[in-house]
Amino acid sequence: MDNHHNNSVLNSEIIKESFHHTAKSFSLFINKNVTIDLININNSYINKSKENNSLVVLFSEIKGNLTGKCYLKFTNSDARKFYSACLPNEYLNDEDMKTGILTELDNVLTASVITVLANRLKVHTYAHVPFLLKMNNFEFEDMLKIDINSNSRKLINFHSVFKIEELSLKTEFIWIINSEIL
Q1: Which residues of 143-172 are buried (b: 16+ CB within 10 A; e: fewer)?
Q2: Dihedral of the alpha carbons of 116, 122, 127, 133, in degrees to the nearest 10
Q3: Rounded to a whole number, what is the distance in angstroms from the first to the last CA of the chain?
Q4: Which end of the chain has a smaller Cβ tally under 10 Å, C or N?
Q5: 31-80, pLDDT tens digit by residue?
Q6: At 161, which helix (H) or strand (E)?
């Protein structure tokens, strides 16, 4: 078996386990049934949209033995659906609450992945508190290219479907990490 295949299997297992933990934790947090399904994993980011769509991106910096950055990407439309599913109606126009609920999701998801990854690889690693970025598709793609090229890091893109009861949202969870550990 080649090394690339081993890395893909390891990453898939880690993400599936992490998504399971995240869904359980976030279900308790919002008091609704949440599942996160991994659709596929690849080592590239391709902006499939020809349009310059607005995005909501959560960003965390990874520190320790494993360094890099992770991004949780939503379209503006899916972010609005997420707010409607997770926030009481009186907070749907409150920017602080909208930022807070997405930041909490990213914090739980990133912490779950890092915990599973650190335990499996027996490394010390952690993430800084996430923050929210608003940008368009092309700005996001340019940011990823600069980070990968300037730091000789590996990109891992996890496509998933985030389900909150009847609502399904497609998300991308993108990690740009140093590859010598993986």
Answers
A1: bbeeebeeeebbbbbbebebbbeeeebebb
A2: -60
A3: 15
A4: N
A5: 999 999 988 887 777 666 666 789 999 999 999 988 889 999 999 999 99
A6: strand 154-164
Kindly state which CATH superfamily the domain 3-177 is placed in.
CheC-like (3.40.1550.10)
Q: Which amino acid is at 1?
A: M
* Locus of tokens 């920017």: 95
In the predicted structure, residue 4 carries a pLDDT above the cut 70: no
Whether the CB-CB separation of 159 and 170 falls below 8 Å is answered with: yes
Angular region, 152: left φ>0, alpha ψ -120 to 50, beta rest: left
Q: What is the mean pLDDT of residues 139-156?
A: 81
Q: Return the closest-CA partner of residue 75 out of 91, 96, 51.
A: 51
Tell me the torsion sign for CA atoms 76, 28, 33, 15.
positive
3-state SS, residue 57: strand
pTM of the model: 0.84
DSSP string of 86-151, one letter each residue = HS-GGGTT-HHHHHHHHHHHHHHHHHHHHHHHHHHHT--EEEPPPEEEEEEHHHHHHHHHHHHHHH
Confidence at 15, pLDDT banded by 50, 70, 90: confident
